[in-house]
């Protein structure tokens, strides 16, 4: 199913003394253009986010805005790993000794261990943004998933609109084919009359040459190929809409082909009703083209 290039997602979170809000949005674009506004002191974050976005999206003008604030009243607490290792070894040794003497000890919890003096040190992780960068990188996955889900929802709505428009194109193409069939007798009669008129008023003219020119005119007025190509384009467009891979560029090219056939049909019409159908085709095709501009 196709995806739209229009999407939006927002989120917020906290880690230690830091809290943040971010917004991710996109509009249509010829390629993938990313504009990320993240704090410069979060070393490596922008590169990580760009890599993640590039793996998930192929087109669209994508804008990410991240605002990070710090609660200065909350100290940074850093686990003293060396002290914790020593305590855990002591706890394990104590349990072994208790078992050897047939003494049952109650279980220790993480809260019990952390509450021991020296387990947590107050520090300042502003000098080391690594943990915060890691947390933001992890949580960005959820934000991007929400964003992609919205693009998919928009894509389903787009697919419905495009299917309806393709149905209109198919119906108009069928109508054009019927009108072209109905005008055959009239065109043949008109050609015979034109041939007789030319021969009556052109002394010395080569009848075979005149007939050949009129035959060329007849071929130029035939819209069978245009009808067949329009039908084929409808089938191709429906096949693209059913694919899971990005198809926006292919659909955009197909819209150009639709428009070319409609223009040719109008130029060959030589019939008011057929011309009207051709013009209606052009209107629907132009509406489709506008919708396709937003397909990834």
Strand content: 5-15%
Read across the widest sheet, the strand sequence of neighbours is: 1-2-4-3
In total, the number of strands is: 6
Tally of helical segments: 8
The major pleated sheet works out as: 4 strands, mixed
Quick check: average pLDDT? 85
N/C terminus separation = 11 Å
CATH topology of the largest domain: Butyryl-CoA Dehydrogenase, subunit A, domain 3
State the CATH class of the largest domain. Answer: Mainly Alpha
Order of helices and strands, N to C? EEEHEEHHEHHHHH
Radius of gyration, rounded? 36 Å
Large-scale geometry:
rod-shaped
Number of domain modules: 3
The CATH architecture designation of the largest domain is Up-down Bundle
Structural class: alpha+beta
Helix content class? 55-70%
Contiguous low-pLDDT stretches (5 residues minimum) are none
């Amino acid at each position: 199913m196709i995806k739209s290039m229009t999407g939006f997602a927002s989120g917020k979170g906290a880690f230690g003394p830091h809290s943040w809000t971010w917004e991710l949005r996109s509009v249509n674009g010829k390629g993938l253009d990313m504009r990320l506004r993240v704090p410069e002191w979060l070393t490596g974050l922008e590169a990580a986010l760009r890599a993640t976005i590039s793996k998930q999206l192929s087109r669209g003008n994508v804008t990410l805005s991240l605002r990070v604030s710090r609660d200065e009243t909350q100290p940074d607490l850093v686990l003293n790993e060396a002290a914790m290792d020593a305590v855990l070894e002591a706890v394990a040794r104590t349990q072994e000794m208790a078992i050897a003497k047939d003494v049952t000890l109650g279980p220790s919890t993480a809260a019990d261990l952390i509450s021991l003096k020296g387990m947590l040190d107050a520090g300042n992780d502003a000098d080391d943004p690594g943990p915060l960068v890691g947390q933001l990188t992890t949580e960005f996955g959820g934000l991007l998933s929400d964003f992609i889900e919205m693009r998919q929802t928009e894509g389903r709505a787009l697919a419905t609109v495009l299917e309806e428009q393709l149905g209109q194109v198919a119906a108009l193409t069928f109508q054009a084919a019927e009108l072209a069939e109905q005008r055959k007798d009239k065109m043949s009669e008109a050609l015979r009359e034109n041939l007789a008129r030319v021969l009556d008023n052109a002394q010395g003219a080569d009848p075979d040459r005149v007939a050949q020119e009129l035959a060329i005119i007849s071929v130029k007025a035939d819209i069978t190929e245009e009808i067949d190509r329009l039908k084929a384009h409808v089938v191709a467009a429906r096949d693209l809409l059913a694919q899971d891979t990005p198809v926006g560029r292919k659909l955009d090219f197909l819209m150009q082909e639709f428009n070319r056939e409609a223009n040719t049909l109008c130029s060959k019409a030589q019939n008011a009703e057929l011309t009207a159908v051709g013009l209606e085709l052009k209107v629907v095709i132009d509406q489709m083209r506008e919708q396709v501009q937003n397909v990834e």
